[in-house]
Design goal:
Shape: globular
Number of strands: 11
Strand order of the largest sheet: 6-5-7
Radius of gyration: 21 Å
Number of helices: 10
Helix content: 40-55%
């Protein structure tokens, strides 16, 4: 399996799962710090820290959906978002009052902030789509391989996971499904039993510049690494959690699993509210309730 094959496989991912993820996050949430919406809550809530106008949140959300659908480029989304925020008086530095403590706090919307909003949300959306695809194909592709960009910008801790290959159902993927931090560019790819047994991947470093560069075999890392954690106190809620040391707080979750959890909670709520006979029939037909 080569780097070129990996890229080709990634492009086969239909964006519908990513679109569904963004659409499902239609519950808009006012927030005054990024910690206000924590990890798997992103499976059904969309927020932009300290952007307190729901109409602007809705417009940014809708634009992201269009972009993942392929109707809007990153550049076009940023152009539209900048114009939207300028017209509303939110471009540049804005003062907002935090209801948690009554303090006036500053927020800034500029090109760098828009890039971060776009990249974080679209990468999480595609990560969700990848998880759902991996889940569907795990009978024939029972392993998942971690892949970095293999350049100087890769975090040292993430570089250590490059070519790490573990079963789809390994608990490692519950907390280490990329992106694993702000601006993380890592990704994953499913793998067959045959390729796993082969024990290595093949790539041609510098192939885009040197067509005659030799193929390099890189052994798979099949041993699950020890996961050391650190204590993290959410400054907004005071809640204490254990976060893997190599992952930014707020990213130690699997967005695909978060989406499944959110959908299941929706089903549970509808079954509880339904007529008992209909609810029983739905469960018999495969819908799970609590």
């Amino acid at each position: 399996m080569s780097a070129a094959t990996d890229f080709a496989e990634l492009q086969k991912l239909k964006p519908q799962e990513a679109v569904d993820y963004l659409v499902a996050r239609g519950l808009l949430k006012k927030s005054y710090a990024w910690q206000d919406v924590w990890q798997d809550e992103h499976g059904h809530q969309f927020t932009v820290s300290r952007l307190t106008r729901l109409d602007l949140l809705q417009a940014l959300h809708d634009g992201l959906v269009k972009s993942v659908e392929g109707d809007l480029s990153r550049k076009d989304w940023m152009t539209d978002a900048e114009q939207l925020l300028q017209d509303a008086g939110w471009w540049g530095t804005k003062a907002v009052t935090d209801p948690a403590d009554g303090e006036i706090k500053l927020t800034k919307f500029d090109a760098a902030r828009l890039r971060l909003i776009y990249d974080t949300n679209t990468r999480q959306a595609y990560a969700t789509g990848l998880w759902e695809r991996v889940e569907r194909s795990k009978r024939t592709q029972p392993y998942v391989r971690y892949i970095t960009k293999q350049d100087e910008r890769v975090r040292a801790s993430h570089r250590a996971w490059d070519n790490l290959t573990l079963p789809v159902d390994d608990a490692f993927w519950t907390t280490h499904w990329p992106p694993n931090g702000w601006r993380c560019r890592c990704r994953v790819m499913s793998m067959s039993q045959r390729d796993y047994d082969q024990g290595y991947t093949e790539s041609r470093p510098g192939a885009e510049y040197e067509q005659d560069a030799p193929m390099v075999r890189t052994p798979l890392k099949k041993q699950r690494p020890n996961v050391a954690t650190r204590e993290y106190v959410n400054p907004r809620t005071g809640e204490i959690s254990q976060v893997p040391e190599e992952i930014d707080p707020g990213f130690a979750y699997n967005p695909g699993q978060a989406r499944q959890k959110a959908l299941q909670q929706l089903v549970d709520g509808k079954l509880r509210a339904a007529d008992p006979g209909l609810s029983k029939a739905a469960r018999r037909d495969g819908l799970k309730g609590d």
